[in-house]
TrEMBL record:
<feature type="binding site">
    <location>
        <position position="82"/>
    </location>
    <ligand>
        <name>Cu cation</name>
    </ligand>
</feature>
<keyword id="KW-0186">Copper</keyword>
<keyword id="KW-1015">Disulfide bond</keyword>
<dbReference type="GO" id="GO:0046872">
    <property type="term" value="F:metal ion binding"/>
</dbReference>
<dbReference type="InterPro" id="IPR036249">
    <property type="entry name" value="Thioredoxin-like_sf"/>
</dbReference>
<dbReference type="Pfam" id="PF02630">
    <property type="entry name" value="SCO1-SenC"/>
</dbReference>
<feature type="disulfide bond" description="Redox-active">
    <location>
        <begin position="82"/>
        <end position="86"/>
    </location>
</feature>
<feature type="signal peptide">
    <location>
        <begin position="1"/>
        <end position="27"/>
    </location>
</feature>
<keyword id="KW-0479">Metal-binding</keyword>
<comment type="similarity">
    <text>Belongs to the SCO1/2 family.</text>
</comment>
<dbReference type="InterPro" id="IPR003782">
    <property type="entry name" value="SCO1/SenC"/>
</dbReference>
<keyword id="KW-0732">Signal</keyword>
<feature type="binding site">
    <location>
        <position position="86"/>
    </location>
    <ligand>
        <name>Cu cation</name>
    </ligand>
</feature>
<protein>
    <submittedName>
        <fullName>SCO1/SenC</fullName>
    </submittedName>
</protein>
<feature type="binding site">
    <location>
        <position position="172"/>
    </location>
    <ligand>
        <name>Cu cation</name>
    </ligand>
</feature>
Amino acid sequence: MNRSTTRTIAILSTCVLAAVVGLTAWAAFGPKSETQCAGTNVAGGTSTIGGPFELVNEAGVSVTDADVFTKPTILYFGYTFCPDVCPMDSLRNAEALYLLQEQGYDAQAAFITVDPARDTPEVVAQFTELFHPDMIGLTGSEAQVKAASQAYKTYYKLNKETPDDEFYLVDHSTFTYFVMPETGFVDFFKRDDTPEQMAERVGCFIDSAT
């Protein structure tokens, strides 16, 4: 092997190494796709979750999903009389939202009650104000709430011992959803996801959309 051949091999090796390093860096720090942002695969795809709804906001005004999801939104279904899970989840969601806003993201949270009989617009307003000023409270008729719940594949069941029981509890699913304007549902979070993990994934989705 002559000196010229050796030099050519060395140059090619350097180029290949630089390309590998560049691709590795791009994969680690470059723009990410929505697939890379997602924490869990959704059976049937994301298009199977979410959809149009009509509810009532904290001011008592009828609103649609288009009115609500004007910015990236962390969405939760629960009820204000919930003794433990809903307050804890709402606090976690609020902390994730605070982290996102501190990082410069324009996002919000929304709370849809599954107990519209007790959760009037005034009640959900008081509840959401406890956690974050940019958490929207939503209620509605039983039919409206049921339609929204079914759109997001959530479960809830009222546990009334008697028809006039005022202190009943409600069994319900505890997933938190992430919804983007126009796009709709893109991901969901489990109860063991931390505020930091949520903020990281939500920020990833927002970045990938810009």
